[in-house]
Amino acid sequence: TIDDLSDEQRVTFRGLVKEYTRNLPREFARDIEKRIAGEAPEAVHFAWRGGTKSLEPHSYMAHGKTFVINYSNVQGGAKHVHSALRQRESDFGGE
Question: pTM score, two decimals?
Answer without folding.
Answer: 0.83
